[in-house]
Amino acid sequence: SLVGVAALTYGVDAVKWDALGGKVFLPLLVTPFASLLITGVLLRATPRRPPGSGVLADCVCAEVEPTMVAVAAAFPRSAALVAQTPRLRISTGSAEACATTRPGALRLTVDHLHWLTSGATSLARGMNDAPKIVALVLAASVLLGGATISTSALFGLVAVAMVIGSLVAGRRVTHVLATKVTPMDHHEGFAANLVTAGLVTAGAVYGLPMSTTHISSAGIFSAGIHRGTLNRKTLRDILLAWVVTLPAAAALGMAAYAVARLVLEAAS
Q: How far apart are CA 90 and CA 150, in angstroms?
């Protein structure tokens, strides 16, 4: 949308295509493929049932156990137990087995990791997406010569708007990605979220705008390929939406600018 309006207003030559290609288009193009590949590698490297074991491994248990040592006592044929330095025992297994056999242990399951990486993905999205909207508002403010707007206030307003938008209309997107692409368990969701959070956070750190939706969708596609249950119709619809979005946004931005310009000229 921004590129379309800039090209219409200032001419095609005024757009810095080199910077746009290297810092915007290239990350948008490469990161979904990176997410697809890395998520697939991660899922293969962390099977829920390690080869040859047949055991469902989705929990790490940590427990401090006292160590008792038998020593000779003063009386013949007798011994005493002396407590030594406690030791930390860490084991893996199924969440059900850990809860049954070691109820006092500290348990970290794949379910916990899935929730943690979901939060990390949300944080990464805020770091990468909010600055895009703030940049548009600041640029418009400078061009219009208006009053200076507090950057902190802008980030706060954008964050609130993103939350409201997610609650009001974002659930449809969530429903499609969570249920229509492929069945997933917490292990696969954790892998996709971990890769998404890592890539989007890296983009925010290096100032590269990325699409959280594209990256997370590619991770989910990878989970579907890994399972062999990828819904090809949903995949086709999503890819079509990706292809149409950029030119459609440019066209709509140009149309909105043209209409606004006509209205302002008529009013003056």
A: 50
Sorted by sequence, the CB contacts under 8 Å of residue 181 that are 6+ apart come out as 217, 220, 221, 224, 230, 231, 234, 235, 238
The tokens describing 223, both together, are: 């989970």
Query: 109, 96, 117: which is closest to 189 by C-alpha?
Result: 117
Residue (of 191, 219, 248, 182) closest to 45 by Cα position:
191
Cβ 201 vs Cβ 126: under 8 Å: no
pLDDT tens per residue, range 157-197: 999 998 898 888 888 888 999 999 999 988 899 999 999 99
Closest by Cα among 131, 128, 136, 134 to 5: 136
- DSSP reduced 3-state for 169: coil
pLDDT surpassing 80 at residue 36: yes
Q: Are 60 and 92 in contact (CB under 8 A)?
A: yes
- Of 133, 123, 253, nearest to 201 by C-alpha is 123
Q: What is the DSSP letter of 229?
A: -
Quick one: which H or E segment has residue 233?
helix 232-267
CB-hemisphere CA count at 13 Å for 193? 22
Contact (Cβ atoms closer than 8 angstroms) between residue 15 and residue 253: no
Q: Is 0.70 topped by the overall pTM? A: yes
- Strand-pairing partners, residue 81, are 70
Which amino acid, one-letter code, is at 216? S
